[in-house]
Target: Ribonuclease H
Amino acid sequence: MPFFCKFARVGRISPFGRSMKVVFSVVMDRVWKKVKGWKERFLSRAGKETLIKAVAQEIPNYILSCYKMPVGCCKDINSMLAKFWWGSNEEKRKIHWMGWERLSRAKNDGGTGMGFRGIEEINKALLGKHCWRLATGGSSLLEKIFKSRYYPNNDFMCANEGYQPSYAW
Model:
């Protein structure tokens, strides 16, 4: 049963008082609906590659840049994309001739990869970008809020997780 919240239409989630797996099910449902719609069409490998790279891996970008997605959710999305790539469906499971990690390698890295990006790696990169902004200093409102709450006497690199931190921290 999908979890819907009032901000789901604009790409925002409301994580308060819910397990993170339930919160991120909105994103997983959105990716699943796209992939499921494509499965009904006959697509070449190049078409599937383009759809995975340009659409399916871009759907969760806003959420991934704000929150750390649980590893289980990342694996579920990667699994959906792998099943789409190999042509599996609910009735018939096809053989996955290569693992997703191997497909995620760059095309010029040994010639075996397709250059797909893993959701967990995308999440780390986007959150790392925000961490870099906080570490190098700036005068954004978000930095002032985080500084007053999580590291009032230190700099960002010496900050602790704290007691019951927000999902965005």
In short: The first helix runs from residue 20 to 39.
